[in-house]
Amino acid sequence: MANLNDFVLFAQAVEQGSFAAAARRLGVPKSTVSKRVAELEARLGARLLNRTSRSFMLTDAGREVFEHARAAMIEVEAAESAVLARRAEPSGTVRITASVPAAQFQLAAQLPRLAAALPKLQIQLHVTDRFVDLIQEGFDIALRSHFSPLPDSDLMARPVHREAFGLVAAPAYLAANGTPATPGDLAGHDGLLAQPRAPGWKLSAGHQTAEVTPRPRFFADESVALLEAAKAGLGITALPRSISAAAVAAGLVVPVLPEWQAGEVTTTVLTTHRRGQLPAVRAVVDFLAGSLRPAGAGE
Fold first, then answer.
1. Which of 55, 229, 268, 287 has the smallest count of CB within 10 Å of its CB?
2. What is the pTM assigned to this prediction?
3. How open is the CA angle 152-158-164, to the nearest 5 degrees?
4. What's the CA gap between 4 and 72, in Å, rounded?
C-alpha cells in the first residue's frame, strides 16, 4: 500500500505548481517532496508528472490520481474541522419555541442544566400553543409534541422521545364508583376529556385495541387542568405518564387499566437546515435529544 502522505505531497505539489512551493507550504525540504513523488510513481508503476527544468505537467494518470488525492484531503480537512468545532465551546443566542406542556414538563427542568454547562450560550425560550413558523419568526429550534406524523416540510426533524398516555383516577372516585376491569367498563364511568368533538379514547394493549366513550363530565385541552380534575375525584382521565407520575407517586391518583394505553405522543425537535448546522444550535439539539427522558416514564 502506498504511503498516504505521498498522495498529500503530490496533491500539494500540483496545487502549488512546483515542488519548491509545495515544500514551503508544508515546511519540508524540496528534496523530500521530489523524492516522495518519485517513490509514489514507482509504487504505482505510472508516470504522474512530465517534468521540465522549471515546471511540470500532469499526465492523464497523474490527473486521475490528483482528483482522488484532492478529494481525500478535503475529507481529512472536513474531519479535522468537525472535531475542532465540537471542541470549541458553543456561544451565541439560540431561540427555542415550545408549547406550554412541553415547556412545563420537559424544558423547565432541563434548560437550566444546559445553561450551566454552556455559560457562553444564551437561551431564549418562547412558550406558546399557537403554531410558530421558524423561518418567518426567526426561531432556531421548535419542540413539538404530536400524535400523528408531522407534515412534510423543509425542516430538519429529529424525534427525541415517545411516551404513552395512561388512564388515572383518584382513589376516592374509584372507591365510590368501582374500578374498571376491562375497557368496556369505562362506558359507565365519568370521563375527563380533552375535546368535546371526540369524547372518547382509543386504547391498545399489545395487539388488542378498543374504542371506549365514557360519560363526558369535564373538558379541558390542557393537561394540568385534567390532572387537577382527576385529583379532585371528578372522574377518569388520560394523560402522558410523565405528567401524572408525581401524583401517582403521592397516591393522589392511581393507574386505571395500567396494561392499556390511551395513545402515544411523540416529541420532535425541528430546526431549519441552515441554522441547524450552527455549532450552538447543534449543541442544544444534541442536549435535548439526550436529556428529554420524562421522569417516571420509559422510552
1. 55
2. 0.59
3. 95
4. 10
